[in-house]
Specification:
Layout (H helix, E strand, L loop, with lengths): L1 H36 L7 H11 L3 H11 L46 H8 L15 H11 L5 E5 L4 E4 L4 H4 L11 H4 L4 H12 L5 E11 L4 E14 L5 E10 L1 H28 L1 H18 L17 H16 L11 E6 L6 E8 L11 E3 H11 L6 H9 L7 H5 L7 E4 L22 E6 L9 E6 L8 H77 L4 H14 L4 H33 L15
Length: 628
């Protein structure tokens, strides 16, 4: 009995000594770290053990001390490791037969309300942290926790030298999938990817007592299984205890990621619209039309002397060179507007359909994709890639098809399936690109190669037949949801509408040119026919005037003869049934008046043609208006 009591006394004495040594060495290590790094507000266990390693020269003694002190010292390589992601231990709630209360009746009134977050706070064993049990919390901590938990605004409280996280129900979406495991842990353990940026902020609050405010700040955080692009507005305010010392940080937080992304995407749509409108005005101006006509004639003349081997890859297009240059300029302007939003549009490719060969697509513009990249082929034949895709699916039935697939570069995009879709689909989403074994796994991106690509058809004037496609690289740090899809679809509609405007302008120009040519032909026709009308009328009018003149001369000479002879002659001629000279003269006068009238109409028509042709010559003479 005496020996057992002696051993018990020795053991108790040893534990008391170890406790004092633990306190002495820990305080000494923390004080040295505070002097070295000036970070009195935060010193974690890793830093403490690192300082202890410099104090103890014997690793066995250090390991024994860490084991008895509860400081983690776990590694086969004698490295100091702390378990950062393990949640705090939970209390085991037991009920009695008489009441539903837990076995711990020390909970204050502010933790009694029902709810998920209150239950979570009550279930955590706070005694395993430096905060201690809830019953021993100071009044300043209780008041701060009460204000945070009962607030409807997302708010967190970081308390103690290790900045333990205590947050309310509205703060849970900010935590994402790190809730509830991260509740009560140190800030550096929960948000280790943000700690390097936030540590100076906490130093300014905890050490210098400053209040900070940040608005629409980007944060790259992992809370949904991937590194996410987010934007937050938050404020940091120091929280003091009863003695006036700063013991914590009050952090109201508001996530405005959706608003920032919406404003950014709206700005991109506005920039694209402005650039497209400027390009359309420039291409539709008279000077550009004249230059386009000259360029078209020059290109037509040069086409007869340019060999086929040196022709442009887009020379197969049936449209004029001015229209071709306008389409190319417009697509380049559209992709240049994407430079203001590299996050949402990692890369872009625009393919347009050949009007003369509907099954052929031409690359008109590329954004951030270098020339010669296997994913940016200059020409794509839909029939060929359809055969290649069938062959890739295991449908190789002949050697000819395999030989053609080897000579033609493979198209990595499912354009044939999109453009030949019978359901009228205008979008295809490709996922898992980084896991492929082709060039799509190395597409350019701002941070890394995008894992998702979205392909949209461009609307055309002919319904049901898209004029081309546009390929977008999706932001790998955002979820491709309906809002993201609507944004890219709006860009595709804007670019397609601008292309249709260029084509309509081209058709209107061709129609105006054809009408001008038709009007010139009409003018030449009426000019020629007017001359043809004047010739027979002149030939008819001249004999008529001679006949009338002869009849008038003969009638004048006959008046000098006797009345008897003329009467007898008239009676004889009347008896013979022949017309009299007066009746013949009246009929000829009628013919002359009608011929002169017709001649006047023909002359007026000829003068009108001269005015239209710009060859009229005005003759001025003095006229007395009262006499007219």
């Amino acid at each position: 009995f005496c020996s057992c009591a002696l051993w018990r006394c020795r053991f108790a004495t040893t534990m008391v000594v170890w406790a004092h040594l633990d306190r002495i060495f820990r305080c000494d290590a923390r004080s040295k770290l505070r002097e070295d790094f000036d970070t009195s507000f935060y010193v974690n266990d890793d830093d403490v053990v690192s300082e202890l390693a410099r104090t103890f020269s014997n690793k066995k003694i250090l390991r024994l001390f860490c084991t008895l002190s509860g400081v983690p010292y776990l590694s086969d390589d004698d490295e100091l490791v702390s378990k950062r992601t393990e949640p705090l231990p939970r209390k085991q709630e037991t009920t009695t037969n008489n009441s539903n209360k837990t076995n711990d009746d020390d909970f204050p009134a502010f933790l009694s309300p029902p709810g998920e977050i209150f239950s979570l706070v009550r279930s955590i064993d706070w005694g395993s942290t430096e905060l201690g049990p809830i019953s021993r919390w100071p009044q300043s901590l209780r008041t701060s926790v009460d204000a945070v938990l009962n607030s409807s605004f997302p708010m967190a409280l970081l308390w103690g030298p290790d900045l333990r996280l205590i947050y309310n129900q509205a703060y849970i979406p900010v935590f994402g999938d790190r809730h509830p495991a991260g509740y009560g842990l140190r800030f550096c353990d929960v948000w280790h990817e943000l700690w390097d940026d936030f540590k100076p902020m906490f130093h300014r609050v905890m050490v210098q007592g400053e209040s900070l405010w940040f608005e629409n700040q980007p944060l790259w955080m992992t809370r949904s299984g991937y590194l996410e692009e987010t934007y937050f507005t938050w404020s940091y305010s120091p929280v003091r205890n009863e003695a006036g010392n700063i013991m914590g940080v009050l952090a109201p937080v508001y996530e405005n990621t959706e608003r920032v992304l919406s404003e950014r995407r709206l700005t991109t749509c506005r920039d694209v619209s402005q650039l497209l409108s400027t390009t359309k005005r420039r291409t539709s101006s008279p000077s550009s039309t004249t230059e386009g006509s000259v360029a078209a004639s020059t290109a037509a003349a040069a086409a007869t002397t340019t060999p086929a081997s040196t022709a442009s890859p887009r020379s197969s297009f049936s449209s004029s060179s001015s229209s071709l240059s306008s389409l190319e300029q417009l697509t380049k302007e559209a992709t240049s507007a994407f430079n203001s939003n590299p996050n949402d549009i990692q890369y872009a490719l625009i393919y347009l359909r050949n009007p003369s060969r509907p099954q052929q697509l031409q690359l008109f513009s590329s954004h951030r994709v270098p020339a010669g990249h296997p994913a940016a082929l200059p020409e794509i034949d839909l029939d060929t890639i359809a055969n290649q895709q069938d062959n890739d699916d295991g449908a190789r039935s002949s050697s000819s098809s395999s030989s053609s697939s080897t000579t033609t570069p493979p198209c990595l995009w499912p354009l044939s399936r999109l453009l030949s879709s019978k359901e009228g689909s205008s979008n295809i989403v490709m996922t898992g690109l980084t896991k492929r074994d082709d060039a799509l796994a190395s597409m350019p991106g701002v941070w890394s190669s995008p894992d998702t690509a979205s392909i949209f058809t461009l609307p055309s004037l002919n319904k049901g037949v898209p004029s081309g496609v546009i390929i977008f690289g999706v932001n790998p740090r955002r979820v491709y949801d309906d809002v993201y899809k609507d944004f890219l679809a709006l860009l595709a509609i804007q670019i397609g509408s601008a292309l249709n405007s260029i084509r309509l302008l081209e058709e209107e120009t061709k129609r105006a040119e054809s009408l001008s040519a038709l009007d010139h032909t009409k003018t030449m026709f009426f000019t020629n026919i007017s001359h043809e009308f004047r010739t027979p009328l002149t030939l008819i009018l001249a004999p008529l005037e001679e006949m009338i003149e002869l009849i008038e001369t003969s009638s004048t000479s006959s008046t000098s003869s006797s009345t008897s002879s003329s009467s007898s002659t008239d009676s004889n001629s009347a008896a013979a049934g022949g017309p009299s000279l007066s009746s013949v003269s009246s009929k000829l006068n009628v013919m002359r008046r009608n011929v002169q009238r017709l001649m006047k109409l023909v002359n007026n028509l000829l003068n009108y043609m001269r005015i239209e042709a710009g060859r009229v010559k005005a003759l001025y003479k003095r006229v007395s208006i009262p006499k007219q």
